[in-house]
Write a structure and sequence with these properties.
globular, alpha+beta
C-alpha cells in the first residue's frame, strides 16, 4: 500500500460538547432523511480544518492546519498549509497530489482503493456515506449538542488497521464538525472543521493543481 493511500485513509482535545456521553439515537431514520435533504441542497462547501494525529510512540500529537473546498459534482480541494504544504485535488475521476512541488496524478477508474477513498471523502461531506451498508456497519448516537455516527469497516483489508470512523454532526445545522479515524493500534487522526461556509461561490480554478 502506497504512502499516498495511507495518507488518504489516515485523513478524516475534545470540546465539552464532544466529551459529553452519547446515548443511542432516538430516531436514526429521521436523522438520515434530514441529513440527505440538506446534502442535496449543498452545492459548495468551504472550511478551515485542524488535523490532530495521535501516535502512541510520540510524546506529543502532530497538528496540521489547512483549508477544504468542495463543489458539486465531486470536486474537492484538500489543502494543508502548515506546518507543511500538501495539496490534494479530486475531480473528473482523477486524484492529483502536489507534494514539495512534485505533482502525481492517478485515475480513479483503474484503482479500487482510490475509488473507495474518493467515495469516503465526498460522502462525508454529502452525507451519502451513511447508506454504504455494503462496506460498513453503523451505530447512531447523540447527546445534547451533537449526532454521532460510528462506522465499522466490513472489508478484511480495511479491518486489519482501521477500527472505526466516528463522524460528529452539529444538531444546529447537520454539518460535520469532527471526524475521528481510530486505528486498531490505538493511534488516531482527528479532523476538526471550523469557519464553514455553504453554497458560497467557488471558482473552478480553485480545483486546479497548479
Amino acid at each position: 500500500m502506497t504512502r499516498y493511500t495511507l495518507f488518504f485513509i489516515a485523513f478524516l482535545a475534545y470540546t465539552n460538547s464532544f466529551a459529553q456521553s452519547f446515548q443511542p439515537m432516538k430516531d436514526s431514520k429521521d436523522f438520515q432523511q434530514k441529513l440527505h435533504a440538506i446534502a442535496a441542497k449543498t452545492t459548495t462547501l468551504q472550511s478551515d480544518f485542524v488535523q490532530i494525529k495521535h501516535l502512541d510512540v510520540l510524546s506529543e500529537d502532530i497538528e496540521s492546519n489547512g483549508k477544504l473546498f468542495y463543489k458539486a459534482s465531486n470536486k474537492l480541494r484538500w489543502e494543508y498549509t502548515t506546518p507543511l504544504e500538501y495539496l490534494i485535488i479530486l475531480k473528473d475521476g482523477k486524484v492529483s497530489i502536489k507534494d514539495e512541488g512534485k505533482v502525481s496524478s492517478y485515475d480513479l477508474s483503474g484503482n479500487k482503493t482510490f475509488q473507495k477513498i474518493n467515495e469516503m471523502m465526498i460522502g462525508s461531506i454529502q452525507g451519502d456515506l451513511l447508506i454504504n451498508e455494503a462496506d460498513y456497519t453503523y451505530e447512531f448516537k447523540e447527546n445534547s449538542a451533537n449526532y454521532l455516527v460510528v462506522m465499522y469497516p466490513k472489508q478484511k483489508k480495511v479491518k486489519e488497521f482501521m477500527k472505526s470512523i466516528n463522524i460528529y454532526f452539529s444538531k444546529k445545522d447537520y454539518s460535520v464538525e469532527q471526524v475521528k479515524m481510530l486505528e486498531q493500534s490505538g493511534d488516531y487522526t482527528l479532523m476538526k472543521f471550523k469557519n464553514k461556509k455553504t453554497n458560497a461561490s467557488i471558482s473552478d480554478k480553485t480545483f486546479s493543481i497548479n
